[in-house]
């Protein structure tokens, strides 16, 4: 199959699709299975490339992973073993998940090898919080001359007090996956509290962990000697939900997203309403539609939960190109997440990006030469173009722009979108989009 999608744009997306489990939860829950003495079952797993990558990583470490269709994944960690660093390196590809294997592998095997990490090119994406936290537990981190790092725990892992400089999702998960089996109590301050993290805590609790989440971003974990497998139904992907909702808004469409849930999407729903979109929350999902007439411009800042997610930003920006007036978007989570706007400009959007913080939220990127604020002036008539997907979320935004534009666009590199959007070609077809593989 080619890596190009030909999109005949200009018609609204209408129809119903089913959303699946959250990419940014499922991969971590799969890693958690390494901590159990008995097999785990994870349900509502999306068919996305990231799941394949984590499956391969677990298999390299002796975990057997069986896809049992509607019954989900069965993960059996009874024969965990060391993997060859070269194999891990070759297999990890662009994934950032290997870093989260550290805690579980240290508990099971006493050592872990982490290759140089990939992931979307949306900023520097350092792992200093991860390594610092692991050291606090008593791990020893050695940088390897040929690339990657080796982590050992000669004296075992002990509970500790950690305060994150920033509420990082990955670092919070690192601490959780390490502390549950460390000796004694761990206190994590300034933790991330994204719904995907709370679902991971639910999984760990099912396995036998003792974890409390206090107000003010403090998580306490009492280490236990043994954890069992779990049976869990993954929460819905709220990024997939917001992406399709924005596609409906930008194309003047009307979509029903089966499985979308309100509590995890409150902040998005407020913004969607302020822009002029309509939604209707039902028991089995949420309907999103463009009611006709003009959309309104807004001022928005991305933030950690419960703020407006950084991953909702790119699809929303495409919808904002269709709103009347000037919208301002201040990105405070990643320093370089406006690269995707180059293609939108090529398609006729008026978007300027700035180094200044155009907003009041405390931001780590001011005065540091990062183009992390955008001003979108609309409405703009988008026209077709030949574009190349830059990263996962930016790529889906390009797709939305091509759907909203008049004429036929060629979108190259759509394989990147498979990383996080299940069967998006089929879903586009179900919503009446005129697309074909080029
Ligand atoms: N950071 C550091 N040092 C660290 C870790 C993070 O400085 O050791 C910084 C990052 O550079 C970034 C900020 O902290 O500026 C937040 O990063 P975080 O650790 O929260 O992100 P992550 O765990 O690497 C996950 C998702 C991202 C999502 C972010 C924020 C996964 C696999 N990835 O990344 O998802 O944007 O949380 O919610 O869970 C995506 O799905 O497209 C995606 C990029």
From TrEMBL:
Catalysed reaction equations from the record: phosphoenolpyruvate + UDP-N-acetyl-alpha-D-glucosamine = UDP-N-acetyl-3-O-(1-carboxyvinyl)-alpha-D-glucosamine + phosphate
EC number(s) per entry: 2.5.1.7
Subcellular location(s) per record: Cytoplasm
Recorded metabolic or biological pathway in which this protein acts: Cell wall biogenesis; peptidoglycan biosynthesis
Family that this chain belongs to: Belongs to the EPSP synthase family. MurA subfamily.
InterPro entries, A to Z: Enolpyruvate_Tfrase_dom, Enolpyruvate_Tfrase_sf, MurA_subfamily, RNA3'P_cycl/enolpyr_Trfase_a/b, UDP_GlcNAc_COvinyl_MurA
Active site per UniProt: 120 (proton donor)
This protein's name: UDP-N-acetylglucosamine 1-carboxyvinyltransferase
Keywords linked to the UniProt accession: Cell cycle, Cell division, Cell shape, Cell wall biogenesis/degradation, Cytoplasm, Peptidoglycan synthesis, Pyruvate, Transferase
Signal sequence interval, chain numbering: none
Native source species: Aquipuribacter nitratireducens
The protein's enzyme class: transferase
Residue list for modification 2-(S-cysteinyl)pyruvic acid O-phosphothioketal: 120
Coiled coil stretches, renumbered: none
Amino-acid positions noted as binding phosphoenolpyruvate in the UniProt annotation, renumbered to this chain: 23-24
Gene3D superfamilies: Enolpyruvate transferase domain
Binding site for UDP-N-acetyl-alpha-D-glucosamine: 96, 311, 333
GO function terms (MF aspect): UDP-N-acetylglucosamine 1-carboxyvinyltransferase activity
Function: Cell wall formation. Adds enolpyruvyl to UDP-N-acetylglucosamine.
